[in-house]
């Protein structure tokens, strides 16, 4: 088995100031197209810098694809777009070996995933076979075709969109595949002012076409290197584990979050911290990320579903219950709750 | 049976049980029959009114009616129509019974026979209590309140008896109250439905509730408080608690002769005086129209425990007794007389009472001897009970003028040497020196000391005062000014000795009641002690310092007049004691104040004279302790604050700052190299901020990060305040201290904390600010948590221990029999 390596190494991290300037430029660039969605845009960027993949799930027409394309255009790197349809084949995604008459050899024709940024539109319309073709490359950053493994370039990010309402003729993403997306975000409707401004912006032409790249692939690699160097205190690591463990122990959840999610949660938190101009992660980062990073991986119990409790609500409640960590060991000095939970009277059976 | 009816019956039964202490008052059981009948009628009326769905006022009226009819039936004495319906005559009869009861109370000694007046009052009382209990327990559903009227019954025998009572009636009463409480609670719980363990089966009435452990905790705390509180109240030390272990003769009184004529006369005296009931002890007939007290004992030795009698020595009695009393009959008026004495079986001692000073005794066998120095008849082996004898004696009448002429004795005189010895007690010495100042002769000195024990100086008679005649007891008595004859006699003797004059304590009987045929009956109420002072040439002269109003059959003398009399008897104005002046003869039920009545002794408040009594110190100490307890949280809070400030100072001075110049969130800050100190300091500042927030009732959420906490603080408590930046700085410092590789510099945190605290306090209203200052909730909360955690741990351990016991006891549970 041969391995073909492509892309560059992650070296030369930036200073905090340089990092902020660069990322602010990207965010500002994207915001020319998507107005009034700074938090969403920054989260999308954070997922890119955390080397993760993004699932944008919302109703049609709120700018899912636009966000993906704007992000792709802001970075001067290879961008491919796959429109998922029921008849899309796995080889369309990964690539195919074809016989070259001249060289009398099989030649690998790379599929759509061989790009720095892959925009997968309406991912739930493809058959599970095709969806699963994405699995290997998303997690392992490599594609194996005919026994040859091709490594993807860095950065590599899949931005998939899906429509939650129109379920006819769709193949909902299986849990395994959902788990590979670092974060799931919803676009949400723009507020009135943003929508009004949009009318002017889109009046004559699509501003997306005017969008120019502000960074190149090398800069993105430096940004990623910077994110990797962000400090995570022991207390914060503990908090991440506690948070994920809490999803597994929550009575309202049938399936908790995976260990992979812990990893991705912390990685995204590093990116968010860096975007915020910090060289260390704070629990606030994990708290903001708990819903986007964890909510699409957990499955509520039938009771919770009957009670119309969304996973978002369950998770944010969980976050509000979990005490934040401190580096002093033992209980928080102002944790006023008793050390051992008071015995229920009904536990004391004689 | 519905629950209210059931509870009504229980209330009636509980009332009957609670009236058990009345059994201490009556000799018979008629009261129970009559009272029980009344209670049954009242309860029945209440049940009837309730079954007719009468309101509370209707029930009350029905019960009052039943009480009236019941009383009319039992006590109407034929004044009522058909024996049941009261007429105006009936009420007149009730009034008569009431007045009769008042008289009976005065006349009788407990336990009383079935006297109409008292039976009426007790039936009325039980009926009233039954009404109150029913209203409280059934009408208002507050059975705990019903304990108050029940307690009123408790107080009756306690007020009548000075000394201890059998606890059994009280326990019976308490059982009644508990029954009422339990019945009510079971009803209360049943109204919610069946009790349920959580194991899927119901709980029987007998089984402990899952809440029982909480109840047990409350009970333990309640009992501890009930025991500890009376100990802290000073007045109670003279009450029943003070009697424990002192053994002052209550149990020993009248137990027959003891050994060789030495008897603890003080114990005997206080025991007999406190004894319930009246016993005739001595019958005496004398031809002396105006006798003084009969004597039978003397205490002239002072040991560590105070005055004590010594071993009497002397010759067997004969017709001609020696007279070493030192009385020069030539200069003093005296009267020879003869007396006949019959002793009942109630006076059983190795001593015989005689008038001073006997000259001849007849009718006694050779077992009896006479001590001429003590002037007492004693025996080594015989008992005074049922003895009868006759004796001649000489009664001297001294006048103050004569006594003033008594020379001051030489220090070498044996009487002077032996009977003026007294341990030096500085308090007594000071008082004596003050009183005798300027007096030139012994009599005036003694009179000055004697006059001191007057009502003017707030001396009161109190038979319940602590016994004892040691130096400390004397000082206590002089401070408290409450005591009975024992204390008065001993204190005067002690003071006279302190003044350098020989003195001793004599025991005997006061005059007693005189019947028509001239026989005086002396009872245990006439037992008395007084002081005798030795005057050269006059012998032992009696001085009775006990306030005469409280002494049954007291006899003031010309030389020792009643100090509380309206006007002073001029010295020597009366040649002899007039019979009218000594008409203090009082037998059982006489008009004189009963010395056993504690009310007589404690009338009027105790005032502070020379020294503050101990209870003032105890009270002051209690108040100081209370204040100290109250300010402890505030002290703890300020200590915490100071310690955090100190930590800040140390960190600020010890740190070697490197201005790395990291710019974060518009706050330019330096980053420190001494990271540990800076972290500690940031934590200290943060803890202080959190405590300040808790103190000012701002919500603190442990699930909130420092950043979020500060932002919430700013939005809720610090709108548009100058301290916003300072608060953000604190949050940032804590955040960096916790999570960042390099913390912030510490130097600006202490002023920031101060500024934020001021801002928070400024925004809070006054009540919150005061609470934060005086009773900081942060400290209280921490203590409460600590206490709760400690208690939980403890009770868990106990539960584990008791689990073993429960397994062993399980087969014995009554619930098993019912299932």
From TrEMBL, chain A:
GO terms for molecular function: ATP binding; ATP hydrolysis activity. InterPro entries: ATPase_AAA-3 (IPR011703), CbbQ/NirQ/NorQ/GpvN (IPR050764), ChlI/MoxR_AAA_lid (IPR041628), P-loop_NTPase (IPR027417). Residues 324-350 are annotated as: Disordered. Pfam families: AAA_3, AAA_lid_2. Residues 246-317 form the ChlI/MoxR AAA lid domain. Transmembrane segments: none annotated. Residues 53-182 form the ATPase AAA-3 domain. This is MoxR-like ATPase. It comes from Catellatospora methionotrophica. The gene is moxR_2.
UniProtKB/TrEMBL annotation, chain B:
Coiled coil: none annotated. Keywords: Membrane, Transmembrane, Transmembrane helix. It comes from the Bacteria. Pfam families: TgpA_N, Transglut_core. InterPro entries: Bact_TGase-like (IPR052901), Papain-like_cys_pep_sf (IPR038765), TgpA_N (IPR021878), Transglutaminase-like (IPR002931). The keyword DNA damage does not apply. Residues 561-604 are annotated as: Disordered. Residues 477-547 form the Transglutaminase-like domain. The chain crosses the membrane at residues 28-49, 56-76, 117-137, 144-162, 168-186, 218-241, 615-635. This is Transglutaminase.
């Amino acid at each position: 088995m041969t391995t073909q390596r492509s892309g560059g190494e992650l070296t030369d991290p930036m200073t905090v100031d340089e990092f902020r300037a660069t990322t602010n430029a990207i965010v500002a660039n994207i915001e020319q197209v998507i107005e009034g969605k700074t938090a969403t845009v920054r989260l999308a960027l954070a997922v890119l810098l955390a080397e993760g993949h993004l699932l944008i799930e919302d109703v049609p027409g709120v700018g899912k694809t636009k966000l993906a394309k704007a992000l792709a255009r802001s970075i001067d790197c290879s961008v491919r777009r796959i429109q998922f349809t029921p008849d899309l084949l796995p080889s369309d995604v990964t690539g195919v070996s074809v016989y070259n008459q001249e060289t009398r050899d099989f030649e690998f024709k790379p599929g759509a995933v061989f790009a720095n940024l892959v925009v997968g539109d309406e991912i739930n319309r493809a058959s599970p076979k095709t969806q699963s073709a994405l699995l290997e490359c998303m997690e392992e950053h490599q594609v194996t075709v005919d026994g040859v493994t091709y490594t993807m370039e860095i950065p590599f990010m899949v931005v998939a969109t899906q429509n939650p309402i129109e379920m006819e003729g769709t193949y909902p993403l299986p849990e395994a595949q959902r788990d590979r997306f670092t974060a799931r975000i919803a676009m949400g409707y723009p507020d009135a002012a943003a929508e009004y401004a949009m009318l002017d912006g889109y009046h004559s032409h699509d501003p997306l076409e005017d969008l120019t790249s502000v960074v190149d692939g090398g800069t993105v690699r430096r940004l990623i290197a910077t994110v990797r160097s962000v400090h995570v205190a022991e207390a914060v690591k503990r908090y991440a584990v506690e948070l994920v463990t809490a999803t597994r122990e929550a009575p309202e959840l049938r399936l908790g979050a995976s260990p992979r999610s812990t990893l991705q949660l912390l990685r995204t938190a590093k990116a968010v911290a860096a975007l915020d101009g910090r060289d260390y992660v704070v629990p606030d980062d994990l708290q903001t990320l708990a819903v986007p990073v964890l909510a699409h991986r957990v499955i509520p119990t039938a009771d919770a579903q009957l009670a119309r409790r969304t996973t978002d609500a369950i998770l944010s409640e969980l976050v509000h219950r979990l005490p934040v960590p401190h580096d002093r060991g033992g209980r928080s000095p102002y944790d006023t709750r008793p050390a051992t939970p008071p015995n229920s009277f009904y536990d004391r059976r004689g | 049976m519905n629950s209210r009816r059931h509870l009504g019956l229980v209330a009636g039964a509980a009332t009957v049980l609670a009236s058990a202490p009345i059994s201490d008052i009556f000799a018979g059981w008629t009261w129970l029959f009559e009272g029980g009948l009344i209670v049954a009628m009242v309860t029945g009326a209440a049940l009837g009114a309730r079954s007719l769905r009468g309101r509370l006022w209707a029930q009350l009226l029905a019960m009052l009616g039943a009480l009236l009819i019941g009383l009319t039936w039992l006590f109407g004495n034929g004044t009522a129509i058909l024996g049941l319906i009261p007429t105006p005559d009936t009420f007149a009869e009730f009034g008569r019974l009431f007045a009769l009861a008042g008289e009976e109370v005065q006349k009788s000694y407990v336990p009383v026979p079935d006297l109409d007046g008292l039976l009426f009052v007790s039936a009325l009382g039980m009926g009233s209590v039954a009404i109150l209990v029913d209203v409280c327990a059934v009408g208002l559903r507050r059975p705990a309140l019903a304990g108050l009227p029940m307690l009123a019954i408790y107080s009756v025998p306690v007020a009548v008896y000075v000394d201890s009572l059998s606890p059994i009636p009280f326990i019976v009463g308490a059982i009644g109250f508990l029954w009422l409480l339990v019945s009510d609670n079971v009803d209360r719980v049943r109204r919610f439905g069946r009790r349920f363990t959580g194991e899927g089966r119901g709980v029987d009435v007998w089984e402990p509730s899952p809440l029982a452990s909480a109840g047990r905790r409350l009970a333990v705390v309640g009992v501890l408080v009930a025991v500890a509180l009376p100990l802290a109240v000073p007045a109670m030390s003279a009450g029943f608690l003070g009697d424990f272990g002192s053994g002052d003769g209550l149990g020993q009184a009248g137990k027959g002769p003891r050994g060789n004529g030495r008897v603890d006369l003080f114990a005997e005296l206080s025991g007999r005086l406190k004894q319930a009931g009246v016993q005739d002890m001595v019958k005496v007939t004398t031809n002396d129209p105006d006798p003084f007290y009969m004597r039978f004992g003397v205490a002239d030795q002072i040991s560590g425990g105070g005055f004590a009698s010594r071993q009497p020595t002397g010759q067997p009695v004969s017709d001609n007794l020696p007279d070493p009393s030192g009385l020069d009959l030539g200069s003093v008026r005296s009267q020879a007389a003869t007396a006949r004495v019959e002793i009942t079986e109630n006076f059983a001692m190795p001593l015989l009472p005689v008038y001073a000073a006997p000259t001849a005794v007849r009718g006694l066998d050779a077992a009896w001897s006479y001590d001429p120095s003590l002037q007492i008849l004693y025996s080594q082996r015989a008992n005074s009970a049922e003895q009868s004898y006759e004796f001649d004696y000489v009664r001297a009448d001294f006048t103050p003028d004569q006594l003033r002429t008594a020379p001051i004795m030489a220090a070498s005189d044996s009487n002077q040497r032996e009977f003026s010895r007294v341990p030096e007690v500085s308090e007594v010495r000071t008082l004596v020196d003050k009183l005798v100042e300027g007096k030139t002769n012994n009599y005036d000195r003694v009179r000055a000391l004697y006059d001191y024990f007057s009502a003017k100086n707030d001396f009161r008679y109190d038979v319940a005062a602590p016994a004892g005649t040691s130096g400390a007891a004397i000082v206590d008595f002089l401070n408290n000014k409450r005591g009975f004859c024992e204390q008065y006699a001993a204190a005067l003797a002690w003071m006279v000795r302190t003044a350098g004059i020989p003195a001793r304590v004599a025991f005997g009987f006061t005059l007693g009641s005189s019947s028509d045929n001239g026989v005086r009956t002396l009872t245990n109420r006439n037992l008395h002690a007084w002081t005798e002072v030795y005057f050269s040439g006059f012998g032992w002269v009696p001085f009775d310092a006990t306030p005469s109003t409280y002494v049954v059959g007291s006899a003031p003398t010309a030389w020792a007049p009643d100090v509380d009399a309206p006007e002073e008897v001029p010295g020597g104005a009366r040649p002899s004691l007039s019979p009218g002046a000594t008409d203090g003869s009082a037998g059982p039920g006489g008009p004189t104040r009963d010395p056993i009545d504690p009310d007589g002794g404690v009338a009027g408040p105790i005032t502070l004279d020379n020294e503050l009594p101990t209870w003032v110190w105890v009270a002051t100490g209690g108040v100081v302790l209370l204040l100290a307890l109250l300010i402890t949280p505030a002290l703890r809070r300020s200590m915490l604050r100071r310690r955090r400030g100190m930590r800040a100072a140390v960190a600020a001075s010890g740190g070697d700052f490197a201005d790395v110049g990291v710019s974060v969130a518009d706050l330019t800050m330096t980053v420190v190299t001494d990271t540990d100190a800076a972290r500690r300091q940031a934590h200290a500042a943060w803890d202080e901020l959190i405590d300040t927030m808790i103190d000012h009732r701002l919500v603190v959420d442990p699930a909130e990060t420092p950043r979020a906490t500060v932002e919430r603080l700013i939005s809720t408590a610090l709108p548009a305040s100058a301290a916003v930046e300072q608060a953000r700085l604190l949050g940032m410092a804590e955040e960096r201290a916790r999570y960042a590789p390099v913390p912030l510099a510490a130097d600006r945190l202490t002023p920031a904390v101060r500024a934020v605290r001021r801002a928070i306090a400024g925004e809070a209203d006054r009540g919150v600010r005061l609470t934060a200052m005086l009773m900081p909730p942060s400290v209280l909360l921490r203590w409460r948590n600590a206490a709760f955690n400690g208690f939980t741990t403890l009770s868990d351990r106990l539960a584990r221990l008791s689990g073993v016991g429960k397994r062993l006891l399980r087969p014995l549970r009554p619930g098993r029999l019912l299932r």
